[in-house]
Amino acid sequence: MTTDRAAGPGGTVQGAQVTARIALLLRLVGRAPAGALISDLARDSGLTRPTVHRLLASLAAEGLLDHDALRHTWHYGPEIFVMGVVAAERYPIEELARPSLRRLAEETGESAFLSIRRGAETVCLLREEGSFPIRSFVLHEGVRFPLGVASAGLAILAFLPEDEVTALLEGSLTEAWGPAHTVAGIRSHLEQTRSTGYAVNPGLILEGSWGMGAAIFDRSGRPAWALSLTGIEPRFRPERQPMLGRLLLEEANRITQELQKPGLPAH
């Protein structure tokens, strides 16, 4: 791997550039549960296909990725699993959230999710399927959305400081998710979220696929995670939303309170 002593154009440290490219490819692979094609990785990363192939091969040699030679797809490798197991000891949020997801799924019949904020995005971590037979498949483990897109991102963004909200929206690519994701449109949803305490995504990503979310706060009082419910539009009629919102807020508050207890990591 290139070392930090070599600098590229504009003074960019090549070693740091390689690290950033590797991190980007790992995130992109994680977005595709069924496996990522090298053509898609090259397109989404903005890197040339030979560069992507070289980095993927290096990651596979280290056990961080696996290559399915029959389907020509790339997947997380065993070393990623090991790292995740070790890291989980420092981040108990999944253990705390699982009972809440089960209760939400059982009480509502909808699919329940836990998402985490990572920079300007949310990443879905956990899913619990509800009993209702018709489901929305917009959200799944590993999928990422910009803050302000989907109910989890709206719930988190709504309770960040205003200067941070402005900075995030100014640098956001949310409009790529459809005409409803303008800055003005998102701000309207943020106001509604602050008023009720929970976010509603009325089919903004995929027509007919609705979601609702509530933020979970860390010890410093910042929204760092979100619980959400997703399903088809008839299951999220206005008369049912207050009940769903109340359940989401109760479970989000329960986890927030657990995170305040001594002995747990601050984030």
How would you describe this structure to a colleague?
It is a single chain. This protein has 9 helices and 9 strands. It is an alpha+beta fold and 267 residues long. It folds into 2 domains: 9-82, Winged helix-like DNA-binding domain superfamily/Winged helix DNA-binding domain (Arc Repressor Mutant, subunit A, Orthogonal Bundle); 90-259, GAF domain (Beta-Lactamase, 2-Layer Sandwich), CATH 3.30.450.40. The strands form 2 sheets. A 6-stranded antiparallel beta sheet has the order 6-5-4-9-8-7, sandwiched between helices. Helix 6 (150-158) packs across helix 8 (183-196). The radius of gyration is 20 Å and the shape is globular.
Top-tier CATH class of the largest domain: Alpha Beta
Structural class: alpha+beta
Into which percentage range does the β-strand content fall? Answer: 15-25%
Total count of domains: 2
Query: Going across the major beta sheet, what is the strand order?
Result: 6-5-4-9-8-7
* Helical residue percent band: 40-55%
* Number of helical elements: 9
Mean pLDDT across residues: 86
What is the assigned CATH homologous superfamily of the largest domain? GAF domain
Q: What is the ordering of alpha helices and beta strands?
A: HEHHEEHHEEEHHHEEEH
From the spread of the alpha carbons, the general shape counts as: globular
* Radius of gyration from the alpha-carbon trace, in angstroms: 20 Å
Low-confidence stretches: 1-12
Number of strands: 9
CATH overall fold name of the largest domain:
Beta-Lactamase
The N- and C-terminal alpha carbons lie at a distance of 31 Å
Largest sheet, in brief, is: 6 strands, antiparallel
CATH architecture title of the largest domain: 2-Layer Sandwich
GO molecular function, one term: DNA binding
Organism: Cryobacterium zhongshanensis
Domain HTH iclR-type: 16-78
Domain IclR-ED: 79-261
